[in-house]
Every structure is written in C-alpha cells, then in structure tokens.
C-alpha cells in the first residue's frame, strides 16, 4: 500500500505544499486534506487544495490499476472530508492509455521555463483531450495565438494584482526554497532551481527575491513564457465545490501525464482564476461562459528542469 502512496505523492499540487495525508485501513486508502498546509491568501476557499487531492487520487488509481486491481472511490462528506479508495479483490483490465500515463508519473514536472514555441500536432492535441476526459469536467484547448495572447494578458494582470498584496507576497515567500539543502530538508515548497533560477544561500534568498520580484520583471517573464508556449488548457468543473474540484484535479493530472508521455511540458499559470474579478474574462476567452475556471496550464516543448522535492512517504501516512 505504501508503494501506491509513493506514486500519489508525485502528483501536481499548488506551491508544492503537498496538502494531503493518507491512512491505510485493510484494503482501503483514505486521502484527506492536510489543513496545516493550506494557502489561505492565494486559495481562500481551498479550491487548489482539493484540486491537489484530485491529482494525488488519479496517480493513486493509476498505480493500483497498473497492478491489475479494481477500485471503488467514495467521497467523504461530499469531498470536503477527502475521499476513500477501496481496493477490490477482482482483477481489472489494464487500459493501454492508462498504462502510458502510469509510466509517465516519475517524469512529470511543472516546467516553469521558456518553451521552444513549436506547435503541437492535431493528433497529439486529440490524445491530450481524450486522456484528460473525466465526467463533470470541461476542457478547453487554446492553440490560436490571439486567444493565447488574451490569456497571457490576464496572467500578467492577475500577477500584478497579487504582487500588490503584501499578504500574498509573504505567503509565497514562506513556500520558496532557495538552497538545495533547505529544499531537501523541507521536502516541499518551490525550489528556485526548478524555475531555472540559481540556487542561493538561504539567508540571501529572501533579500534577492525582494529585489528581483518586480512587476515589470514578472510581466516580462510571463510574457516570454506564454509567447513560447504551444497552447493553453483551461479546465472547469460543472459544480464549484470540493467534489467538483477533486474531479478537476483528476483531469488535470491526466492531462499533465499525457503531455509528459508525448514529450511535452506543462506549467500552471493560475493567476487569472486566483483573482476572482478576472475569472469571467478567462471563462469567456476559453469558451467556458457560465463556469468557474479551475485550472490553467500552458504546454509545449522544453528541456527538463530539476524536479521539485517530495516529503518521505512515512511523513504523509497517518497511523
């Protein structure tokens, strides 16, 4: 069971907070929120937290399925309390697509760099759409440059507004890890090397961050990143509640794993949905009018960056 959980812990999650706890009871694995790892400024309604749980759930299901086992998933308190995965005795057929997604789990990463700008083929776009299909979740793939540019502008506007909020900056700084020793010791957070930035002594990192973290600098960075991306994926749940957000997390994780299997990279650019006033414009741009956008990903071709750290499995299992 702990081996399955190890794969779950490699899932995408906001700020690399890894906001999950697991418990094993016989043939059942529970996944519940770790409320001590909330990010209340950027995520006041725990939307990102439940999306993260959904990402972990999907990795867990793929790992279990890879062993030919069937599962039943039960939501706890309509998803607000997490979820429970029951391993069944009967064998299940292994879906070839899911097997490819499972094989991609150790190689998936949020690649926060400039991409190559190369287009993604129609066939590969279709694979991304097929792989990420989850009931109750809508996916919009934007590949025309005019709509990518609209999303780019919303990303920059959202980032500008967040940078004007001292509480947001303090929360972000809390999760930054500047030195490899601190990143490995903490086992979480946003390690600077994973964004292509140099490692720094931990005492120097916060000072350098405050000097370099400027609106103009961030706007230029995001403009270059968005302009180099092949496309943008926007996901939205039919119901804006923990159950819906968990489903979005499952779809998001499957999209990222399919991209990895196809040699593509992905990165979150969630600023337009984290600033509530920008959500309607994002939904309109993505053709999701009437829905709340839940995840924004850019994708394209790029080199591999260092991987984010993960906590030991023993640290996330409740006894």
Number of DSSP-assigned strands:
11
Structural class: alpha+beta
Described by the principal axes of the CA atoms, the overall outline is: globular
**Roughly what percent helix?**
40-55%
CATH architectural label: 3-Layer(aba) Sandwich
- The total of helices stands at 12
Give the full name of the CATH homologous superfamily.
NADH Oxidase
By CATH reckoning, the class would read Alpha Beta
Question: How much β-strand is present in the residues?
Answer: 15-25%
Gyration radius, to the nearest Å? 19 Å
What is the rounded distance between the termini? Answer: 13 Å
What's the rounded overall pLDDT mean? 95
Characterize the largest beta sheet: strand count, sense, and whether it forms a barrel: 5 strands, mixed
Strand neighbour order, sheet with most strands:
3-4-2-1-11
| Parts with pLDDT < 50 across at least 5 consecutive residues | none
How many structural domains are formed by the residues?
1
Query: Which topology does CATH recognise?
Result: NADH Oxidase
- The H-and-E topology, N to C, reads as HEEHEEHHEHHEHEHHEHEHHEE
Structure in a nutshell:
With about 325 residues, the chain is α+β, with helices and mostly antiparallel strands.
């Amino acid at each position: 069971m702990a081996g399955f959980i190890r794969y779950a812990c490699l899932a995408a999650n906001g700020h690399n907070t890894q906001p999950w706890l697991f418990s094993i009871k016989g043939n059942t694995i529970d996944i519940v929120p770790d409320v001590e790892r909330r990010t209340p400024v950027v995520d006041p309604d725990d939307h990102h937290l439940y999306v993260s749980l959904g990402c972990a759930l999907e990795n867990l299901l793929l790992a279990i399925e890879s062993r030919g086992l069937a599962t039943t998933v039960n939501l706890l308190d309509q998803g607000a309390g997490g979820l429970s995965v029951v391993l069944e005795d009967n064998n299940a057929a292994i879906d070839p697509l899911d097997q490819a997604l499972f094989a991609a789990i150790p190689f998936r990463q949020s690649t926060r760099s400039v991409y190559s700008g190369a287009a993604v083929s129609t066939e590969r776009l279709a694979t991304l759409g097929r792989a990420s299909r989850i009931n109750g979740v809508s996916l919009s793939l934007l590949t025309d440059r005019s709509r990518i540019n609209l999303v780019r502008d919303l990303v920059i506007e959202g980032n500008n507004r967040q940078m004007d909020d001292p509480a947001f900056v303090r929360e972000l700084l809390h999760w930054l890890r500047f030195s490899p020793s601190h990143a490995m010791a903490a086992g979480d957070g946003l390690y600077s090397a994973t964004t292509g930035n140099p490692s720094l002594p931990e005492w120097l990192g916060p000072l350098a961050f405050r000097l370099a973290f400027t609106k103009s600098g961030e706007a230029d960075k995001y403009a270059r990143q968005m302009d180099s991306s092949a496309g943008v994926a926007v996901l939205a749940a039919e119901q804006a509640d923990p159950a819906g957000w968990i489903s979005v997390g499952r779809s998001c994780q499957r999209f990222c794993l399919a991209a990895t299997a196809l040699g593509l990279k992905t990165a979150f650019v969630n600023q337009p949905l984290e600033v509530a006033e920008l959500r309607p414009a994002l939904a309109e741009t993505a053709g999701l009018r009437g829905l709340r956008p839940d995840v924004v990903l850019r994708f394209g071709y790029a080199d591999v960056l260092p991987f984010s750290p993960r906590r030991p499995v023993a640290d996330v299992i409740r006894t």
